[in-house]
Amino acid sequence: MPDSSGATVFDDLPEWLVVDEILLRLPPKDVLRCRAVRRSWRSGTSTDKFILDHHRRQPSLPIIEHQKGICRLPVPSGAGDKKIRPFVRYTPVTRIDVMHHGACDGLLILSLQHHFYICNPATHRCASLPRPPLRPGIGSVSVVAFYRHPTSGEHRVLWAVYSIGLMSLAVVEPPDYFVLAVGSDQPRLIQWPIVSEQGYPAAESSICPPVHHRGSLHWAMGRSITVFDTVAETFHQMSRPAQLGDMVSLLDMGGALALSSTTREFVTLDVWVLQDYDAQTWGFQYRINLRAMVAAPPLNLRADFVPRMVAIDERELLIQKGWRLFCCDIDGKFLGNVEIEEHENYLTLTKHRLQESMISLPLFERQEQAAVNNVPPFLIVL
To answer: What's the whole-number average pLDDT of the chain?
Structure first.
């Protein structure tokens, strides 16, 4: 508060203390507002070091899709029922056609048909995203992974380019895989050995995003795990517990690589954690028994509802069973339901996560300076 002379308590504090100890702890929206207060605050919070340190302090929260947009859990999540709100809204005309492909460092990739966009919801900046060219004839292109290259610091996209049969509208041959740095129009073709049981080394990120671990990307494919080394830009495979069967998915458990598996009845979820990456040894951690969980209202345990699970933090989990989305702890205790404030609870739990940042991209600057018309088919409301 200012005193009678107009001074504030911040005038008595060293500038470095305000920037490194106070502004660093604020949410991105508040830091951006503070930039308009003082020129020194603007310069102090605009350095690469501040932006990266600030980003690392933000919570990494699961992304939830709604038919009208993309949502996330409130911060802090806390216990009890949770009301969520979209931070990206689709327009009424395009909402059934917009797809969410990936998230990295607070940046999102979304698309409408063959047009891709990259945006930062915290800064409300958006740009058209170049992609590899389609194959001759009928084809499609999809994002396989969105990641930061560990040595160059570039944000890169791993793309798959498909050919589609004219009569069957099905993929008729294996896709080509390309790596493309964000903002570049020079894709690099990636060679891969045909070693996967599924035929393809990796899945589309909109359906099954990879888990980032030790500078590589990981997908659970069949009875093995496909790994893409982002430095060498090569694919290989690693083993996982064979007794888990086919109903498995990879998790990020606070920086540890984990597997979730379910039975054919879809009433239990077992979590295994990779204990030794080089030796590829896994250890059982805990089991979530949905049949024994006391929930209000009771859970619908229909066998055709395959449960999906992600970790909120070291103790709290987010699980989807049918259209029901709820939180529990690792001991199987029910903590509350997740609902949207708009009373339309058709929510889908994705494996993507949003960790807000104020990171900018040269692509944003170039398209703004060139006055490129890149109005996206969605509205950022974070």
So the answer is: 86
Using alpha carbons, select from 156, 105, 154 the residue that is nearest to residue 358.
105
In angstroms, the CA 203 to CA 191 distance is 16
**Which residues does residue 159 pair with via DSSP β-bridges, in sequence order?**
143, 178
Best CA proximity match to 105, nearest among 157, 158, 52: 52
Domains of the chain: 8-57 (no CATH), 58-380 (2.120.10)
CA distance 117 to 119: 7
Q: How far apart are CA 145 and CA 143, in angstroms?
A: 6
Amino acid found at 118: I
As a whole number of angstroms, the distance between CA 213 and CA 255 comes to 7
The encoded tokens of residue 82 equal 């949770």
Place of tokens 């006055």: 371
Sheet holding 256-262, edge to edge: 248-253, 256-262, 268-276, 281-289
Place of tokens 């099954």: 208
Q: Which residues lie closer than 8 Å to 259 by C-beta, 6 or more apart?
A: 220, 240, 241, 244, 248, 249, 250, 251, 271, 272, 273, 274, 282
- Global confidence as pTM: 0.90
Retrieve residue 225's tokens: 């795990």
pLDDT on residue 214: 92
| Residue ranges for the chain with pLDDT beneath 70 | 1-12, 75-80, 93-96, 137, 165-172, 193-200, 342-345, 373-374
